[in-house]
Design brief:
220 residues, alpha+beta, Jelly Rolls, 16% helix
């Protein structure tokens, strides 16, 4: 799969199993996510168009492995477990949370990643981003400094991704206060976003259109 992705794209596709990924996150070992994966396979759907993101699914959060993740990766803090399924193929923009995010690949997909300290004056050069292939079954922890957004599919059917974050992340803000440049990027609770100008949906929600360069479409 990785060889094919590199053959059809004009940007290099790395594997999350490579040393390059260590700048952005790590592979999680020691946790059995099979129950969560089975739930996603049986009870979640890939939409006909676009993506669907559900931040919190109580049934998923009841599995014992979620308690293990809470007490290890998140240091005992409350978590939410949900999913993002879809057919995205373009970069579109980036977000970060200042906390870890776990992505569990129910299917193969690609992640477009950057580093939040590469944002300058609320602009980000899209050529700085790197693309990583995440194989089916892999669980990755992305660091709080890692820019990311929706996965990108690697086949016609689309992708399924389980997402674990601190409880309340991505929920509506009670109050939005602008005090400096970075505060303009805060779009939802614990969610700082910078959008590509072509991503009108994010801009309508209030995201800053600061991504500079071509909004590349990843092929498969």
């Amino acid at each position: 799969m990785l060889e094919r992705l590199n053959r059809v794209n004009d940007v290099k596709i790395y594997s999350v199993l490579s040393g390059e990924f260590l700048h952005y996150g790590r592979i999680l070992s020691g946790c059995d996510f099979s129950d969560l994966i089975q739930y996603s396979v049986e009870k979640t759907e890939i939409p006909e168009n676009g993506n669907i993101y559900v931040p919190s699914v109580p049934e998923m959060e009841e599995y014992p492995v979620c308690g293990t993740v809470k007490n290890t990766v998140f240091g005992g803090g409350e978590i939410q477990v949900g999913y993002c399924n879809g057919k995205n193929t373009t970069y579109n923009g980036f977000e970060y949370h200042k906390s870890p995010e776990i992505n569990i690949a129910v299917t193969d997909f690609m992640l477009v990643l950057g580093k939040c300290f590469e944002i300058e004056n609320n602009t980000y050069d899209i050529s700085r981003a790197k693309v990583f292939f995440v194989p089916k079954g892999a669980a990755v922890e992305m660091f709080g400094t890692t820019l990311h957004l929706s996965p990108c599919r690697t086949n016609d059917e689309g992708f399924k991704d389980i997402v674990i974050l601190p409880k309340g992340t991505n929920m509506p803000l009670e109050k939005r206060e602008i005090t400096d440049e970075e505060s303009k990027l805060l779009l939802c609770r614990s969610k700082w976003v910078i959008a590509h100008p072509e991503r009108e949906q994010l801009i309508r929600q209030g995201a800053v259109a600061g991504v500079i360069g071509e909004n590349k479409e990843l092929k498969y």
